[in-house]
């Protein structure tokens, strides 16, 4: 990588050390870790061209201010990169009840963040729709809209669990959407069983006010959308 980070005012007073390409890369960015003045930072080189990076930076800033994201420091659209604090922690493939409770709390915080943004139309994201997907959208259309700022990419690699907190990374798909899309993605990605789903909904909504059938409809949509996305983006970075 050939970028002089000292040109950014935040990094001008000390040298950059230990710039390392992270071992586990995703589909959307090329990620590096480095040390500056004894603190660790994450450098993300953007590889998707269809993302609104200014919106991503704004959303991550709001999420950081609410304690659920790393602090963003630099957005350089000319060089297609963002720098933020590096979060120490682990990913989990299987959730305990306390983890589900913490995710529900985090989503409550996220979904209460106010932002003025056009709600994404998930149905328009589909190139083609199966009968199950058509029926899922038909049911959702009959439900109350519950629109809020959503992460929209809640796979296990985007949750960072530590002893002190639970935070989210990779905000490039964040936008206003129905809150059930985020809830459904957690259920699908962590393969929650009926009991675990009940915990998720109860921790998020309380004893009443949730719609299991709506969650199931969004699970159908989320699975189909992921299948389409991975079909179009088959080679990992």
From TrEMBL:
Show the Gene3D superfamilies listed in the entry.
3.90.1200.10, Phosphorylase Kinase, domain 1 (3.30.200.20)
Give the Enzyme Commission number.
2.7.1.32
Q: What InterPro entries does UniProt report for this protein, alphabetically?
A: CcrZ_PhaseVar_Mediator (IPR052077), Kinase-like_dom_sf (IPR011009)
Listed A to Z, the keywords are: Kinase, Transferase
This protein is called: Choline kinase
Q: What class of enzyme is it?
A: transferase
GO MF entry, a single one: choline kinase activity
């Amino acid at each position: 990588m050939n970028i002089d980070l000292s040109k950014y005012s935040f990094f001008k007073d000390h040298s950059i050390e230990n710039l390392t390409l992270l071992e586990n890369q995703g589909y959307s960015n090329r990620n590096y870790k480095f040390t500056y003045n004894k603190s660790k930072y994450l450098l993300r080189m953007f590889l998707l061209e269809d993302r609104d990076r200014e919106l991503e930076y704004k959303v991550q800033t709001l999420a950081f201010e609410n304690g659920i994201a790393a602090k963003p420091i630099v957005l350089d659209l000319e060089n297609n990169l963002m720098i933020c604090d590096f979060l120490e922690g682990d990913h989990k493939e299987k959730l305990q009840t306390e983890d589900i409770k913490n995710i529900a709390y985090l989503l409550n915080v996220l979904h209460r963040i106010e932002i003025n943004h056009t709600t994404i139309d998930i149905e328009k994201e589909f190139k083609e729709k199966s009968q199950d997907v058509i029926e899922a959208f038909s049911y959702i259309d009959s439900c109350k809209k519950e629109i809020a700022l959503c992460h929209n990419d809640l796979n296990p690699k985007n949750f960072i669990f530590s002893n002190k907190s639970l935070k989210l990374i990779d905000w490039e798909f964040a936008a206003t959407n129905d809150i059930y899309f985020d809830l459904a993605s957690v259920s699908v990605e962590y393969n929650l069983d009926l009991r675990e789903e009940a915990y998720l909904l109860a921790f998020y909504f309380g004893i009443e006010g949730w719609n299991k059938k709506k969650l199931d409809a969004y699970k159908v949509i989320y699975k189909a959308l992921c299948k389409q996305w991975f079909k179009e983006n088959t080679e990992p970075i």
